[in-house]
Amino acid sequence: MRHYKKRAAAVILTACMLMTALPVQSGDIIKVYAGDNDFSWSTYSKKDASWWTSSEAISYGDEIVAYQLWDGGWRKDMKTETSGSWNKSTIDNNATWGQIRYLAKLYNATKNEKYKTSCLKGIDLLINGQYSNGGWPQVFSDPGTYHAHITFNDSAMVAVLRIMQEVGDGSEDFAFVDSERKEKAKNAVNKGIDCILKCQIKVNGTLTAWCQQHDENTLAPASARAYELPSVCTSESSGIVDFLRSLPDEMKTKEVIRSINAAVTWFDSVKLDNTKFDWNADKSDKVVTYSEGSTTWARFYDLQNCKPLFADRDGKAYDDVSKISQERRTGYAWYGSWPANNVKLGIISEPQDDPVVTPSPSPSPSQSQGAHLYVGFFDKDGSYSTVSEAVTAAAQINPTSEEQRVSIHIAPGVYREQIIVNTPYISFINDDPSAEVRLTWYYGIGYKYYSMGSDGYYNAENARNKTSKGEATRWGSATALKGNADYFRAEYITFENSFNRYVTDEEIADGVEVSGSQSITFQRTKWADVTSKGSTERGAAIAVEGDQSEFYKCTFLGSQDTLYVGSASGYFRDCHIVGNTDYIFGQGDMIFEDCDLEFAGYSDKAVGGYITAMKSKGKTLFYNCNVTAAGGKNVGSGYFGRPWGAEADVAFVNTKLQYENIITSAGWTKMSNNDPAAAHFKEFGTTAGGNPVNTSGRVQNTVRYSGDGLDVNTYLNGWTPYYLNGKPADPVIVPPEKIKGDINADGSLDSADILLLQKWMMAAQDAEITDSTAADLNEDGKINIADLCMMKSLLLQ
């Protein structure tokens, strides 16, 4: 984040001060002195090939290596050792990614291995420092500050993505990178693009652009410095769109193209014509003036009405730049032409979906039958704003059979609410697997809240009154499937308890404090590091107590006690479960097939975790599952589990470990004096890197040398889950043939379509084309006057 005028003045002043103190340069050799700290990749990107073997290039390369930090990155001011956030590795202002580019060039020119080693160490930081949601922080290992937010500011994340692209593709500068890193870099790019798409801001149901920074957990627009408020930002968004446009055709999915088009359309809608922001006549202030033919954009637009937004150092928002202090008015780029080129380039033609010709009926019951409710869909009448409202409506329908199943379709987004289901035959469905539906809440054990009811669950009246506080039940489960919630299903849903992941504003407003009922002293504040080992306590993402519950491609996020499975049966297919201590626990008959089990790790120390803690009742099977460690956190060697009950019954079959010692040599350990050797623990076919692991040190009686009886069908005991073979195909509905020119999609081409297109081309506010592909009659990828003429001609025929 730069203050160009101040920085330029500082550089000039520093240069003047040093001129008499430093030795004079000789020839073309530029000496680098301690205190000359800023690194700018743009300075070196223009150098020709011969320069990279010069003593100047090598001398500066040696300094880059010398000032590399322990984790592989570099400070914002490379040589300035300071305290706090800016003494850590960062991607702000060219740092880290700029040095990586320099070292790659230098290694290719000199073949000196130390430059390669340093460069690879930097690349490893970028790969490992990426959040699981695909974003990168401004500063690494700096939780609890705005530097931890996903940062688009100054094109930081885009610059990292471009390096990851080049590494993954093995481009000329990075051809020396090994295949394993290349594969990781490709994956990082895909995750990064997904993060960009998920961060794109909706205002009143319409996709717009992006904020400078987004919350690293919720992806919501986030503030940075006091005068950089949550908003839609044109400057950084323009760079994001440039990056998305630059993707190779095979990566420009429909979602990417729609994202580009939405941003460009928004840019065009908020431009300020005949407007200029510049110095006044005596250069004493900056003012907005009328300027014929000029077009500009505000840097920030508010999140409610997309109106220009300004702020001062006091953090207050204003709707007019003249209302902020002169120092801020003249010292920051409040207006600019950043989106101009993207508006000039216009939108991209969106690919049409492949037509479906023949129906494919499913032999198993279809989720298309019964009732359908909707949450978060702005374009559907009767859509609910919260999941809880839809659950209440489903309870009133009172389904009692599969034919009466109530399917609750949830639009992508983050839903902050405790959700309680106590009705059978309910499904939670995300119809867009490429976008996340996250159901999240913040209760944890050992703390009390204003919003807590006497039953240990959220109570709206208590939340409003704030008269007394209560404690949570059922491990603070963010989603609770109670005993009557039999035959529940969920697909492509993320269930999260934020308690051990981040602190929310809602939690602080809810008066969270230590309850005194447990031996807990950790104080939860807005910027507290709740991912540290010492802060961790029980906080369940979901408690599953209904019989025959099923989850398909769902994600469960927590740390301690993430997923509770009660004394019932359930089936988890292709799911991702994250946690540290006993993160799958309970006493039900549960099957986990083809699931990813991830140790979340801690911010401060590497401590081994426990995947399971099961009671004596019930049997649990993990079949063909993967055990992995989260990137960016400290993860110690953990255990398959420990017995919550003396005769706990857990089997891990055909498990693939990310690396062999991710599970300790013993494999299992005791709990509450319950001996793992006396429990019914079973392990068969465990591998790491495709090779059998060494099980000679496992707890006695836990290793099996035959898989007999350790299969899914045996454990199902006659039950056939809906998702047993993946998601059954719903009946395919053949769409009606599109009529050219029928842009309002009413089934015919008529004068209403012509009038609508005319109004749309005149940018009338109430003109919205329902079917844009029907408007492009000449199929040139644009909608213009030629299409209008063709439409009129067709109507006359």
Descriptive notes:
There is one protein chain. The protein is of the alpha/beta class and 797 residues long. Helix content is 24%, strand content 19%. It has 18 helices and 42 strands. The strands form nine sheets. The protein has a ten-stranded parallel beta sheet with strand order 13-14-17-22-26-29-32-35-38-40. Helix 12 (387-397) links the parallel strand 13 (371-375) and strand 14. Mean pLDDT is 88; it is low at 1-37 and 353-366.
Q: What is the spatial order of strands in the main beta sheet?
A: 13-14-17-22-26-29-32-35-38-40
CA-CA gap between termini: 60 Å
Going by helix content, strand content and strand pairing, the class is alpha/beta
Shape: globular
What is the count of DSSP helices, taking H or I runs of 4+ residues?
A: 18
Helix content: 10-25%
The average pLDDT is 88
Name the features.
ten-stranded mixed beta sheet; alpha/beta; 42 strands; single chain; about 20% strand; about 800 residues; disordered N terminus
Give a quick rundown of the structure.
The protein is α/β, with parallel strands linked by helices and about 800 residues long. Helices cover about 25% and strands about 20% of the residues.
